[in-house]
Amino acid sequence: MKKNLYPITSLLFLFLGIAMTLDAQEPIFSFLPMHPFGLNAPPGSSTYVKLVDIDHDDILEAFVSLSGPGPGKVHYYENDNDNIKPHFVFREADPFGLSYGSRRPWQFVDIDGDGLQELFMSSFDADSPVHMIDITEDAVGVPDLSSAPVVNPYGITLPVSIPNGDILEAVNPTFVDIDNDGDYDVFLGGWFPNSLADEKLFYMENNDPSENGTAPRFDSVETNPFGFDFPLTEKVILFTFADLDNDSDFDMYMSTVPGNDVFYFENKGTAASPDFSGGVASNIPAPFSPPGGSFLDICGDGDLELINGSLGAGIDYYENMETYGGCITVDTKREENIPSAIILAPNPVKDELRLFIRSEVFVEKAALQIFDPVGQLVFTERLDAMGRESSVTLDISQLSPGLYFLTIGLGEQSLVRKFVKR
User: Fold this and answer.
1) What residue ranges in 83-176 does DSSP mark as E strands?
2) This model's pTM is above 0.85
3) What are the start-end ranges of the H helices in 185-303?
4) Are strands 46-52 and 327-335 parallel, antiparallel or unpaired?
């Protein structure tokens, strides 16, 4: 294998037409084994991944918080492509003067409607009220995150446990215009320092008198609004909102720490009148944890994929399988011996899957793996002396019917194909 690598990241797009019937009310995400779009983290790292257009170019950049032994770091990645085909390039640690202590970036939001993002932080510390950094810019538009944080801004009040008066700790604020009135409301998650299962979802409506989102003012705390009903817990509660079923209102994922239980709540109301009654729609196993990541529409196919931060598992990517015939975007380094064509046939397949590889240069060996939709390795094989053109027939009769991802490893590269086993 040649050692010289081109300093380019290749975005490989695979277009597949797969006819399958799924429940349109609940998105189905499949783990895709890859380093998503250039983002990376050391093995075992606990991460948050937050995407934001920090420089006003209509392209999302990435802030990745790393936690582990010693001081944590916030890594900044610039997107040198676009939001449909993102390619993130590491630029610096602790960017733009950011000083955060034990807190981590949790959500960027233009809370006061001035065209500049504010940064809200989160922490697992005991004494951890809401911290907001008011982001400014210099004369040429470079963001400045060095200002001292504002504590509990705009009338935010920390919830109190009714049984014994404990104040919410490990607070993480999540802002969303849940009632479609043009300003951001806030949901507060966290935990109470006691042995009671009194952790709940806390909500404060933004009663902005300006009616244009420029003068935020939060009302008193409400508990479990809009019909929310979920299992009682003594864990830290985290959550995030997104329109996951494309019906123009916000649905919610909730996760708990430790344990990382993940629950999905469908909004059965409207954009202006949310209704989350009916309980938990599903319970999803770890490490899928949307509150620690960010949703975006990869490929522009109309559904939201997840770049997922996690506790101890680095950074993962989950493809939204709700829309078929879309693309899988695979981030790789470009090398002289990357194959120019990799074809699977037939697809869908019953028992024998044929793999055809054509390369402009000689390929000595490759590692082949097959993963199921939740990331479980179900098949592996080593391919030697492949040459410039080769074909391999794989016996996959032992696999259960369903969707699979086939990866071909060439050194540091990982190319992916999606197929269906009948």
Assistant:
1) 88-93, 104-109, 118-122, 131-134, 136-137, 143-144, 150-151, 169-176
2) no
3) none
4) unpaired
